[in-house]
Amino acid sequence: MNYPARPAAALPGHPPSRWRRWRSWLLGTFPGRILTLGLLVKAVTWPPGTAMILPPAIEALDLVGSLALLFACAYGLARLGMWAKRRLLWRVRRKLILSYVFVGVVPALLVITFFLLAGLILFFNVSSYLVQSRVRALTDQARFLAQTAQVEVQRSATAQAVGEALERRQSSTETRYPYLSLAVVPMSGLTCKVEAARAARISRTLPSALPLSAGPWAHLDVPVVLPPWIGCDGFTGIIAFDLPPGAAAGDEGRTRLVMRAVALPEVPNPAWAVVLDMPLSAVIEQRILDETGIRMGEVTAFTGEGRQPIPGRSFEVRPPDPQNTPLFSLATQRWVAFLDFSDWTTGETESASVAILINVWEIYNRISVVSQAGVGGVSFGQLLLAVLAVIGALFLIIQFVALVIGFVLARQITGAVHDLFTGTQHVRAGDFGHQIPVRARDQLGELAESFNLMTGEVTTLLGEMAEKGRMEQEMFAAREIQQKLLPAGPLRITGLAMSAFCEPAREVAGDYYDFLPITDTMTGVLIADVAGKGLAAGLYMAQLKVIVQSLARLHHEPKEFLSAVNKVVSANLDGKSFITMTYGVIDLERREMTFARAGHCPLILVPADQPPGRRKARFLVPDGLVVGLQIDDGTMFDSLLQEQTVALEPGDLVVWFTDGISETMNDAFDCFGEERLAHVVEQYAHLPFDQLRAYILAELRGFASGADQHDDMTMILMKIDAPVTLPGSIAAVAPVARLTS
Question: Looking at 457, 485, 513, which one is the last position of a domain?
Answer without folding.
Answer: 485
